[in-house]
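Reopening this ticket.

The earlier resolution said the output was attached, but the attachment link was broken on my side. Pasting everything inline this time so it's all in one place.
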Amino acid sequence: MDIQKVVFMLMAQDMDRAIALYSDVIGLEARYRSPNWTEMAYGDAVVALHGGGDGEVKSTGLGFTVADIEAACREVSAGGGKVMSGPSERPGEPIMLAHLADTEGNGFELAQEVRSSGQTAGYPP
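Inline output:
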């Protein structure tokens, strides 16, 4: 198999609204844009938005690691997304985690790496 690109696809009810959140708030770059298919990227990672969403909140498995999870939650909320839970520490894991939904109802997670004293950077520890 000769893989050319890995794409994480999300459904969008309102393409312009979804693009605004992922570009203006989260910081992804729109590399291709059309009314029914838009590719947003961060490095080699691609989040593709596909038209036809129904707006219902659903889990997707998408996640972003951020430097300041509390600030990131406030930014997503101000941009029209919703904080569903957290941020909270994860017992036994070196992260804080928050569950959010974008403007289209696609659930995603924000994580922030945390270190206890004496622990070196990096996840997993």
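Reporter confirms the inline version is readable. The chain has a mean pLDDT of 91. The longest helix spans residues 15-25.
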